[in-house]
Write a structure and sequence with these properties.
Elements: H1 8-18, H2 26-34, H3 40-52, H4 54-65, H5 74-89, H6 94-108, H7 111-127, E1 128-134, E2 143-145, E3 150-154, H8 166-174, H9 178-188, H10 190-200, E4 206-210, H11 217-226, E5 230-233, E6 240-244, H12 252-255, E7 259-261, H13 264-273, E8 280-283, H14 290-298, E9 304-307, H15 315-325, E10 330-332, H16 335-345, E11 348-354, H17 375-393, E12 396-406, H18 415-423, E13 428-436, E14 448-455
Helix pairs in contact: 1-2, 1-3, 1-5, 2-3, 3-5, 4-5, 4-7, 5-6, 5-7, 6-7, 8-9, 8-10, 9-10, 13-14, 17-18
Length: 457
């Protein structure tokens, strides 16, 4: 019997049928259904591609069908969504996309649904004028931006007029909440916000951080290439970009703890902190331990790192990473035990405070976040962030450093929280800060913020 039981398109359809943004379960579903195919990357591409661009796709389906989305049966709708994504955002053959979607409808739903699917997708194909149109030469109302220079041009208006409402235009083009786009325009201006939107909807690259306790970057490149992994060194960094990987978890080099997967922006946080060998470091929001282990590696595994997290279930993941990487300097404690021990010692040289946040800098990797974002949520999150920063300030030695970081790009969660803290804590100074936004450069990255607060009491 064939080990692979279904096509990647069918697997992506099944992912979407079970997907619930409230459960944040896209990754788990992709893992579940991609095992039944011979092409995991296509399952990831279609599933996350649909989720990233869901607002546009649904609006376009409604436009072509003459029906509201609520009036289309969910399984048929997801069949249409996967096909529309490929027709608009990829260069796959139109016939193959439409044919497989129709067959899937027929076999998995009904013959009647297959006819409906075929009719709508024929209208979709007919509405597409040019998949690789130059944006500068096209009507913005008829052209969906795909890259910063090209887009998919249609025969009909599919977006609002950018000259009338820039936030509405970007919201529709990139399937992002309008209030969020308005916040970005107010903070960064229109042109940079547009670039951030591209970065937030990109297909994110995969980067490997070498375990410096065991191996150097150049050595890791050679080992990965010997395992048929296409990779290259990142400029001005010790990280590697993995261009073609296969199943990373099954690589012998990964199992042996030679590297960890980490984004460029996330890896820059510990680099900015610059922990030294022999330090005592508290990592208060540590799970899953990616930055915890990076601290240990930078310290040469010499010193003490106490890692904890309020979510006790996730402490297991920290331990798994520590064990795989062969690190001995990390001590993992429950949050309650950490508070007791930290309070009695009160001697951290540095504290990493990678606080819970809105995740607005990692929308490319976590596309479901865009469905949960709201302004009230941001207000609540900043209260939690401020309280955690207050806690950290009681656990640091004189001259010690708190590294406050988020994977958000919103000022309220970043400099806003830091300034509020400094206003009532004169014994700390802002030593340095860094804000990175999502981009689509050769070495693309997520967005995030980091501030180093030094104790001068």
């Amino acid at each position: 019997m064939n080990e692979f039981q279904m096509s990647p398109r069918t697997a992506a359809w099944l992912v979407l049928n079970k997907f619930d943004p409230k459960l944040q379960n896209a990754g788990k579903l992709i893992d579940e259904f991609s095992r039944k195919t011979n092409n995991r990357s296509t399952v990831v591409e279609i599933s996350l591609g649909v989720i990233r661009n869901l607002t546009f796709i649904d609006n376009f389906i409604a436009l072509c069908s003459g029906r509201t989305i609520k009036n289309i049966q969910p399984k048929i709708l997801n069949c249409l969504r996967t096909a529309v994504y490929e027709l608009v955002f990829t260069n796959q053959a139109q016939y193959a996309i439409v044919n497989e979607a129709v067959e899937l409808s027929k076999k998995s739903i009904s013959k009647k649904s297959a006819g409906f699917t075929n009719a709508i997708l024929r209208k979709v194909v007919g509405a597409i004028k040019n998949n690789e149109a130059e944006l500068e030469k096209c009507d913005s109302r008829k052209t969906l931006p795909i890259t910063e220079k090209t887009g998919c041009e249609f025969n009909i208006d599919i977006l609002s007029d950018v000259n009338k409402d820039k936030a509405e235009y970007l919201s529709g083009a990139f399937s992002l909440p309008k209030w969020f786009v308005e916040e970005l325009i107010g903070q960064f201006g229109y042109q940079q916000t547009k670039s951030i939107c591209f970065g937030s909807n990109r297909r994110p690259s995969i980067y490997a951080r070498p375990n410096l306790i065991k191996i150097k970057s150049v050595e890791l490149v050679n080992i990965l290439k010997s395992q048929e992994v296409d990779c290259e060194l990142v400029e001005n960094s010790n990280l590697l970009k993995l261009n073609k990987t296969g199943n990373i978890a099954e690589l012998e080099s990964f199992k042996a703890g030679l590297f960890t997967i980490q984004d460029l922006t996330a890896s820059s946080v510990v680099t900015i902190l610059q922990p030294l060998s022999g330090w005592t470091v508290f990592d208060i929001c540590a799970a899953p331990g990616t930055k915890t282990t990076q601290i240990a590696e930078m310290m040469g595994d010499k010193g003490v790192i106490i890692a904890t997290d309020k979510d006790s279930a996730r402490l297991k993941k920290i331990n798994e990473n520590v064990q795989r990487l062969g690190i001995t300097s990390v001590k993992i404690l429950s949050y309650e035990d950490f508070l007791k021990e930290a309070d009695s010692k009160n001697q951290a040289d540095a504290i990493l405070l990678d606080v819970p946040c809105s995740n607005t800098g990692v929308l490319a990797k976590r596309p479901e976040v865009r469905f949960r974002l709201n302004k009230k949520q941001i207000d609540e999150i900043t209260k939690t962030q401020f309280e955690l920063l207050k806690l950290a300030s009681t656990l640091i030695t004189k001259g010690g450093k708190i590294c406050y970081s988020t994977c958000s790009i919103l000022k309220d969660e970043n400099l806003g929280v830091v300034q509020k803290f400094l206003k009532v804590n004169s014994e700390f100074v802002l030593e340095k800060e860094s804000l990175k936004v999502p981009n689509v450069d050769k070495f693309d990255c997520d967005g995030g913020y980091c501030a180093i607060l030094k104790s001068i009491r």
